[in-house]
Amino acid sequence: MKKTVLVSGGAGFIGSHVTVELIEAGYDVVVADNFSNCDRTCFEGVKKITGREDLPLVVMDFCDKKAVKDLFTKYHIDAVIHFAAFKAVGESVDKPLMYYQNNLVSFMNVLETAQEIGGCNVLFSSSATVYGEPDTVPVTEDTPRKPAMSPYGNTKTMCEDILRDTVKANGGKLKGILLRYFNPIGAHPSALIGELPRGVPNNLVPFITQTAVGKREVLNIFGNDYPTPDGTCQRDFIDIVDLARAHVFAVTRMIEGKMKEDCEVFNVGTGRPLSVMELVNAFEKVNGVKVNYKIAPRRAGDITAIWADPTKANTEMGWKATRTIEETLKAAWAWECHLAGE
Ligand code: UD1
């Protein structure tokens, strides 16, 4: 029998790509979203890519416990992937309570409901932000977490702990996987779904593509005096489709009972560091377009260099990132051009 995966926040950037990969791997998916930070574009794109016009969509807020309960009553959920959360670092500094309220309550409602129905497989979307400024790179899953630099980062650390404690209290009935994402970028090769930031993008790649297409005048490169080879920060940029596929591996591992511990954690990265400057240069070269950029002061709170040691995910889950940075940056540009109607 087909297994059903609930994807909370399934209409967003990561959620929509994960939904596509789950459907293509043979899962039934229920998408739930309150559209607080996205519109219907990606949900419609998912239906087009997968040919699933009947893809279930539940418009709801995960902070509404009754709505979460009703959802788990209506559908037989074999696993839930929880994305529904706010994610803007700067905004979280200005509005901490909004972040704690939304990100913690929504996740606790999922866990409480999973517990009430006698257990479930829960996958939480965590972030490399939990490592803070690491003492050594690359980071493994055993690299100590550091105090979060923002309320947003703190919600990731706290949700990791909430999941771990809940799994422990449920004696094997409720299982959890924490996926720590590095920097997801790019778009689906169909150019039907991709990142759709509202207002001025905070993240690097949407800013690059918007500058290249003429929506933004100039890309600020935040600092070229870091102790790195070219002075700009280094990150582990991972293709969104590769990242989405990691979720399929993780869900299958949970559903097929292949977990070694009831709560597992995996880094989802490529293991390849790339600097901001290298990324901008690669984007220009592969797409044959210029990006108007200037060197600007450092951005507060930025980490100098972080990239993953993805060995655990490679060997334990059998997942590996396969797309080249050229493929990824081409896809990011194709998506921006699609949005511009070209
Ligand atoms: C950020 C968050 C991280 C979050 C992730 C979500 C911080 C410290 N970290 O990661 O918690 O999980 O977003 O996607 O905010 N850059 C520029 N110019 C720009 C934009 C970015 O030079 O206009 C540089 C940044 O200084 C950084 C790199 O590009 O060195 C990547 O930035 P970004 O895409 O925002 O991701 P992170 O900061 O790594």
Task: Provide an overview of this structure.
The protein is an alpha/beta fold. The strands form four sheets. Strands 3-2-1-4-5-6-11 form a seven-stranded parallel sheet, with helices on both faces. Strands 7-10 form a two-stranded parallel sheet. A two-stranded parallel ribbon has the order 8-13. The protein contains eleven helices and 13 strands.
Strand order of the largest sheet: 3-2-1-4-5-6-11
Structural class: alpha/beta
CATH topology-level fold name of the largest domain:
Rossmann fold
Largest sheet: 7 strands, parallel
Tell me, rounded to a whole number, the average pLDDT: 97
Molecules bound to protein: uridine-diphosphate-N-acetylglucosamine
Q: Identify the CATH homologous superfamily of the largest domain.
A: NAD(P)-binding Rossmann-like Domain
| DSSP summary, beta strand count | 13
* CATH level 1 name of the largest domain: Alpha Beta
Beta-strand percentage?
15-25%
Count every helix, treating DSSP H or I runs of 4 or more residues as helices: 11
CATH architecture call of the largest domain: 3-Layer(aba) Sandwich
Q: N- to C-terminal separation?
A: 42 Å
Anisotropy-based shape: globular
What is the share of helical residues?
A: 40-55%
